[in-house]
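User: Structure please.
Assistant: Input sequence and predicted structure:
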Amino acid sequence: MSLGCVVIRILPATLLSLSLVNCSGAPSGAPVLTVEMPLHLEDHLEAATASGLELPRDPPELIEWRFDEPQPGWRPTSTLERRGSVETSYSGDALRVRAVRQSTWPSTESPVGAVYVELPPGLALQDWAYVEVRARARGPVWDIGVAFNHDPKNPHYYYDIPFVVSGLGVPVITDGVVQSYRLDWIEDWIAPEELEGPLTHLGVWFTGTREAEEAAIELLSITVVPKAAVYADVPSGVATVGLGDRLQRAILGHAPGRLEYRIALPEAPRLDVALGVHREDQPVTFRVDVASSGGAAERLLEEVLTDPSSWVQHTAHLSAYAGREVTLGLEIEAEDPGAVGFWGAPTVSGSRTSGNPDVIFYVIDGAGADWMSLYGYNRRTTPFLERLAEDAVVFESAYSNATSTPLSTSSFMTSLLYSAIDRFRSISDKIPDGVTTMTEHFGRVGYQTGVFVSNPFAATASGLERGVDLVRVLDPPVPTVSSQHLHRAFWDWREAYPGTPYWAHFQTTDVHRPFRPMAPFSGLFITPERRAQYIELDEAMDWEDTVLVERHALLQQALYDEGMAHQDHHLERFVARLKAEGRWENTILVIASDHGYPAGSGRSMPGHARDAPHIHPFATRVPLLFVWPGHIEGGRRIRTPVSMIDVLPTLLDLTGLPQPEVRQGHSLAPLLLGQVTEEEWEHGPVFVEMLLIDVISGELVGNMEVIDGRWGASLCVRPDDPQVEVIAVGGGDALFRCTESGYRKSRTPPRERLLVYDLWDDPLLERPINENRPDLVERYTKLLEAQVEANAALRALILGGGQSVELRPEQLEQLRRLGYIR
């Protein structure tokens, strides 16, 4: 430990991210820790006295292929013969892979190719950390990814490649220079039936840009990194470890090893911890003991574990030592020196000593406010929320900042627009380390933290597992029943870790595609016959037939509404149990959504224009309710437009925690606590964005939009080229991409660069008012262009990671004026 230790973030599907911290062994005069809040032992390694912690004598080897000489085991494979062909050749130090698009395949699709190799027997996906590929590329190459188990008869449903399982693509840098790419996969999305048995093949695939006739990439090496290889070099540290369907923040240690903490125990003290091992063939013995000053140590726990597929939860009661200063020892031992053991979220807590409230942030994925009876919808989809509104402040005009889960969730969990944190390059982007998430804000002051989601983009797929005590990403039989499964996981967590206060994030998919409501809500708004008709239409839909499209939308609406009623019912049961547990009076409950209609679908709901701006209420108007009995006066409705990025600063304000150094949201606490009236309140405009990197120009393109009181405006951000044409992609997202080529063109004529709407007289955004209000066109063009620049300046500041970043004085002044930095 005197050499320092490595903090590791370890996921079943992501790279092990390493950073050094001070973990030197604490001297005999080690500090005494107190338990005014739940004491997270993994956060106090610097205060522990460490001994042992042997590294393994025979660390596992990497599996590597280098292509500076032929590797005959690697073979080319096309996505499907109908899409094109793939050729390979050797060029000096690399294997060149060339994909050619079939002439009969639509010109708007990409050339896609892959190479694969047969794997030796006995390899399992859960043993691998990631695959690293060294490659170089020029020309129209878009992304690269990893896949498993070659099977031409069973192409992957998303990427249309002949593999059973695929990871997400990573953008390729096409400067002709050798680059290293870390290729991950997300086990949360891999159902057991998708990958039964061992791994048989490893594949690496890539895609060209759309409309390219062909694309090529040169592979220099492919390396498989097993998790054990990363553990092998780490004496001890903090890791987010996935065992089974639970990810726990844990202390990692190699046997034999021991950590000792000096702790002043509170009343009714207890230690809650989950134990885990890395390998079945390396049993590890875990021991916990406690000793008061000058007394003999008492053994509280001893267990031998051999199963690496799940955590084993334990509680060590310390009541006999209440109010005393003790030494708490955590020890691991194994016959095989270097064997790895995990102490999952080791937490010492006692009877409540803190007045901090519990916080529950409950996000209903894809729940549009327009489809809730709480907001005046004509079907009783949310009767419980209508009753809860009597105890809540309800925001009538709350908006998400994007129309997809990866982007909007990243924004409201950081109080930063997603283009300010570089989350627009690909679906596999993660929140950068220089940004503090909502979870981290609460975890760092001692809150117990839990995340319970059924959409991986609300957790592991976005890097939002960082710093969380427990993460559960559950895959229910159908999305419509997600709330039941997530609530059960939450109560299991509270039983295992009952310390308070806690912070919990839910993100349910009850109203998410494929829209299969379950009894007793199935049949509430649609007959079984019409439900069967929808399923038949959905599986073989002719999207050019406007009559069928409208019928499909009406049927889908009824199914969506039944899912909303299901969610509302189980939310009512959840709140009822909170009250029964005695925690309701000191709980802040926030109910919201990540975006509007139609969750997980490129379909349209009735009455919505597919090419409407993102500020259209069906797309981004979301529910937002705050409840805190005895602190927030209920029965109030606020009409002022607010943003989902306001949630984080509001919760920090309500709980008395410091605000982020960098933020774009505003605290709503003065409104909630009655310190100002709505008439006195000045919030500022609400921004909605849908921006990406254009694959042709490499520039930022898409839409930056604003809701500013009565007015709304949508700016098309595009390269400065008079020949560009407005192009829409993304199905229901209707993203106005401004590129010369490469994407499916919108059915509508090219739009003006800026569109302005009167939201009071035209709430469905059907009639731009550009001709009548040139003054507003000028005002909002300047405002939105300035916002794009401000986000770019923030992005440079954040990605600088504390390094020197060159910003013009006017950029810094703009960021301060906007309140984004202190």
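Residues 1-27, 721-750, 801-808, 814-822 have pLDDT under 50 and may be disordered.
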